[in-house]
Write a structure and sequence with these properties.
α6 links the parallel β12 and β13. The strands form three sheets. Strands 11, 12, 13, 14, 15, 16, 17, 18, 19, 20 and 21 form an eleven-stranded mixed β-sheet that branches. A seven-stranded mixed β-barrel has the order 2-3-9-7-5-4-10. The termini are far apart. It contains ten helices and 21 strands. By secondary structure, it is of the alpha/beta class.
Length: 380
């Protein structure tokens, strides 16, 4: 929960981690208090896309790039209807925005949307701390919310953890909507919104796909009602262990044999649907420079990530599942985390990262073409 007032200025602020470590700085954005899970993002650019990614719901994002805000904020680049991060941490905010597309400063946008942030923090030290100790609960306090540090630490420890959090329905659309194909319509896809980013249906529309975006609460009959050539499960926030409804919905799609593609949270949902477990990573993968290998081609891709949970599936063998054989298709080269799954006997696959990557890189854009190929094969 975030409370805020306007007029951050140079008001003092403090960031408090649940293990008791504190970092002092200045208010950035709104003044007040906020709580969430402290995570760090390694992207050098794309902060506007990060802020508006629904997968960051209830997280306080620490930017490892030292200088943030150079290009300001515009109304064309948001990935959703609002900023979703619970809080924002930067070292050196830009004094002024300088870009021909800029409409206002990042500081102004954070303040306008009530996002409590902090600047002037040693983000290198904070990132090293999170890498050693793991992602943890955090609070940012400024203005009238400043208090004795011991009391603030206790308040942070009372905040909810990300493990066990069921959040996708909080960020998903409440009403279905359609993103029309660009040019000739070739396919229809039902996209289950678990926290979808705006660029994702756009990437499909570029390939002649009419995308019907459905709420996270959709049932199988809602999917079949649009007569889809394929079904897509999006990214989203929270613990996949709580996502029983999306798992049941995906199993219905697998039973029917409709081509299926999932990304990020959708990858974890496929893992659970196939009978694999999921687990929380120590500090997760976030940013736009994560190396992933496509095991079918051997190609290494630089990819965009935002996930704190992963699928527990064997890397060294083909697994038997209720829907046929499955294998790990992609793996992270930093830590061998499962980054993709593929069914060998049904038209279904998923990846743990973001191939739409509005802020780049675009190494993984081919995955949308792979989805098209699956639908072409099924139609033939």
């Amino acid at each position: 929960m975030t409370t805020s007032t306007r007029g951050a200025g140079q008001a003092p602020a403090v960031l408090v981690l649940e293990d008791g470590r504190t970092f002092r700085g200045r208010a950035y954005g709104a003044v007040g208090e906020t709580f969430g899970e402290a995570v760090f993002s390694t992207g050098m650019t794309g902060y506007q896309e990060t802020l508006t990614d629904p997968s960051y719901h209830r997280q306080v994002v620490v930017m490892t790039a030292p200088h943030v805000g150079n290009t300001g904020v515009n109304d064309e680049d948001p990935e959703s209807r609002r900023i979703w991060v619970s809080g924002y941490v930067v070292r050196d905010p830009a004094r002024r925005a300088s870009n021909w597309r800029s409409q206002r400063s990042l500081d102004e946008e954070l303040e306008r949307q009530g996002v409590v942030g902090i600047s002037g923090v040693d983000t290198r030290a904070l990132t090293r701390h999170l890498r050693e100790r793991g992602a943890m609960r955090v609070g940012i306090f400024s203005g009238e919310q400043l208090a004795d540090e011991a009391a603030l630490v206790e308040r942070v420890r009372q905040a909810p953890e990300m493990k066990g959090a069921d959040l996708s329905a909080e960020v998903a659309t409440e009403q279905a909507y359609v993103v029309p194909a660009i040019g000739e319509k070739k396919f229809t896809v039902a996209a289950v919104d678990l926290g979808i980013k705006g660029m994702t249906p756009h990437r499909m529309a570029e390939r002649g796909i009419e995308v019907h975006v459905l709420p996270a609460t959709a049932i199988a009959e809602d999917i079949w009602a649009v007569k889809p050539d394929g079904v897509f499960f999006s990214n989203g926030p929270g613990d996949p262990a709580t996502a029983d409804h999306p798992v049941a919905l995906m199993r219905a799609v697998l039973e029917r044999g409709t081509p299926l593609f999932g990304i990020c949270f959708g990858n974890q949902i496929l893992g659970r649907a196939l009978g694999f477990g999921t687990f929380k990573l120590k500090y997760g993968h976030r940013g736009i420079n994560q190396p992933v290998q496509d095991r079918s081609t051997g190609k290494v891709e630089v990819t965009a990530h935002n996930h704190g949970f992963a699928v527990d599936a064997p890397l060294d063998k083909v697994s038997e599942t209720p829907y046929g054989r499955a294998e790990v298709s992609h793996v992270c080269l930093n830590d061998n985390v499962v980054e993709g799954l593929r069914l060998l006997d049904r038209p279904a696959f998923s990846v743990q990262y973001h191939p739409e990557a509005a802020a780049g890189p675009h190494d993984a854009a081919y995955l949308f073409d792979r989805f098209v190929t699956l639908m072409e094969g099924q139609r033939a």
